[in-house]
Amino acid sequence: MKVAIIGGGASGLMAGVFLSRAGIDTTIFDGNEKLGKKLYITGKGRCNLTNDCTPVQYLDNVVRGKKFMYSAICRFDCQATMDFFEENGCPLKVERGSRVFPVSDKSSDVIKTLTHALKKCDIHLMEKVISLHSLQDKFVLQTEKAEYLFDKIIIATGGKSYQATGSTGDGYNFAKTFNINIAPPRSALCPIKLKDKFCSDLQGLSLKNVELSAKTEGKSYSFFGEMLFTNDGISGPIALSLSSFISNKDKVELSLDFKPALSKEQLEERLKREISCNLNKEVAFLIKSLLPKSLIEPFLQTCQIDKHKKLNSLTALERKAILNNLKGFKLSFDKLYPIESGIVTAGGVELDEINPKTMEAKKVKGLYFIGEVLDVDCLTGGFNLQTAFSTAYACASDIIGQI
Hints:
Distance between the termini: 8 Å
Structural class: alpha+beta
Oligomer: single chain
Helix content: 25-40%
């Protein structure tokens, strides 16, 4: 049996490891000059390769494809991934949020572990696959250099984010060749662009322990943690996570709770105390005790209060405006950053086209799709790479079982 894997990223490499170890004649094609190019930049070069959690906790972090991933994560879970890397010479550590990294903090060590684990696997770098079609019970794979014949094809080409790493959506075109439906690719885990002009003045400001919320189409989403202002919007962990839930929405109401640890009633009591103790101070003095200095002006402009106004002359309506904006500061949603800016791609090969136990296309025997090319995306924390590893295992297991 001869198997071709198109794409030498996380899912392609892991599938190659399992297949080659089983003695299957396996060839990996990749248009880049080296394997695992996108892996090099994940986790800011440190590679958050999985999350130290149970299958149920993993599924709680799947945005799209939760039901589809159930079988795959139960067969090859996060612990199995950790065991694989540890047993193959890559010691790991667990950090905040149960994120798992190599002890070395080097993504290159993750790639080395995967490539060293490949057994007698034929690697074709700088050889981009340009077409694919079936011929009787075989597949004809055409590259820029030659034509090949294979029994099985695994498409592990990734999505469309970080296109400089080779993720240019080729897998979608291969799927369309076989009349396999594609959910429109769109950005996920990406910064959010705002219409608010004050963003440029706040560029680089990081807020910790805040809650970012969105309302859209009758649904509400909220994330607590750290957020960062960019020159034209917001980024940081909670903004990236929220983006995955609003990726296909046009009308979104965003708000920011600066003091989520306090109820509205508790915060109101605090404001009363602060005001009564500083009656002759300006309102900017009060806000300075609650928010970073650079936020004072845009905050008070939103409240429509002069920053020089004395606290003893604040009206009841003005006090209410301060309270309401501290607990629900409105942000004007514009759109998400383009798909190239996303950490992962939402959309891809529609899941009802794929057998969730084997990753084989239902319409085409011997054709498999794994990793980010599928319409599965997760939140940050190592869950997306775990998806790559779990789908690779499901696919490889099915092929190995046919020997």
